[in-house]
Structure prediction request, 456 residues.
Amino acid sequence: MRNKQTDPRVVFLFVLLLSSGAALTRQALPMIPLLCSAALAAVLAKAPFGQLLRRLRGLWATILAVAALQALLSGDLARGLLAGACVLERLLILLLAGALLAGYPGHVLVQAMLQLRAPYQLAYMVSLGLRFFPQFSESFRDSLAALQLRGVEPRRLKPRARLKLYTYLLLPTIVSGVNGARKLAMAMELRGFGAYPRRSAYAPLHMRRGDWLAFAGVLLWAAGMAVLVIFVGINYPIG
Amino acid sequence: MIIEARALFYEYPQTGFCLRDVSFTIAAGEAVALAGRNGSGKSTCAKLLCGLLKQKSGAVLFDGEDAAQWPLGRRGRKIGYLFQEPSRQLFAPTALEDLTFAPILNGMPPQEAGRRAEALLARFELSHIAQQGTYTLSRGEQQRLALCGLLMQEPAALALDEPTTGLDARRRDILLETIRECRRGGTSILLITHDSAFARQCAERELRLENGVLHAE
Ligand SMILES: Nc1ncnc2c1ncn2[C@@H]1O[C@H](COP(=O)(O)OP(=O)(O)OP(=O)(O)O)[C@@H](O)[C@H]1O
Ligand SMILES: [Mg+2]
Prediction:
């Protein structure tokens, strides 16, 4: 089978290390090497980062607001700004990590999880989740438009009325999401999903030379980061 | 109200499906049926009219005025869109509240909103579900409730996306009568349906979409 992409298992490892690094780091400066590595990996892998950014367009205002709030709440402005930057960096790293995985078709990711000994049900649920997400956001967009078509413009309302409206808005999305998931689960069981403990695979993944190289690269990178932390003395406060 | 679609073009970026050069006019009080196979672009066309999707080129005009820059709220007062999936346009915890909350937020006195909502529910034989949760309604009930929600605003036009799906013979007749009455009041109607008998009863003209291209009959 022709496959120029790096084996997703290597990417899983990288993403896992990267995101735990991002989660453990609490300061803006030490986060920069992590961010740079994530960006470099995304460029090398030609990850669909721009596409992901565009999809999450609506979230940006919220993200910036959260960062600004962090900056304001922590009294000392300089430290506050650093804290805000830290939140932004962490989100960017997570987004980049997401973009790295988003470049793979769902079934390849599921196959990778399976070969890493994840239970089939779990792997399948993840792939379903990937598929539900766009549906969810589309249903939400339609509902918001339906509300606006009824002449209700959330932005022009008083805060209390607006809050009530947002709970209204979630109702159709959640109901259709939950109903969809329930129907799907029933349909899958009716077709015998999970009736056998093991599955055969149409396209098992194999590590090739390039994959082993990438794997070695990830290990080297992790070691480098560790060295940076321990010896060069970038102060990663952990915990 | 006169609705005019002028050379509408739209393409879904994800699937590449294209609606090409769609032009038609619906006169005040006229009903036009829009037919076509599954996936031929009927709902897409309706969404363009109502502003849920934004055309890549072309224009939608209401009474000769280009609606491109209008906020959705203003469009909604002109044209009410009954979704093909009506559960997406029901919001409030109970049916009655779903009809009244938007008009009240827009400044209608609550008593009047309540009175009108009850009258609409009665007309569509939905009075018994006034206090029921919107998400526990049957498909046909949801559809009629969503239509009532549109009629609360007294829009100058209606785009109905397969409004007969899930309706029994009696509710279908009520719908037919409602459409006729709206038309007598000057409301223009775009009726998307696979039910050609219903289309003939409601509308004198039929447009047909094939693969995103419009054919008049
Ligand atoms: N959100 C979307 N993203 C990408 N493609 C879409 C989207 N919605 C619809 N399409 C595609 O556009 C085409 C037309 O869809 P549309 O819903 O307008 O068809 P329709 O004529 O209303 O069909 P039906 O009779 O089944 O309701 C379909 O081929 C569909 O796959
Ligand atoms: Mg449709």
Observations:
- The two ends of chain A are 44 Å apart (CA to CA).
- The interface with chain B takes residues 139, 142-143, 145-153, 157, 161, 168-169, 171-172, 175-176 of chain A (CB under 8 Å).
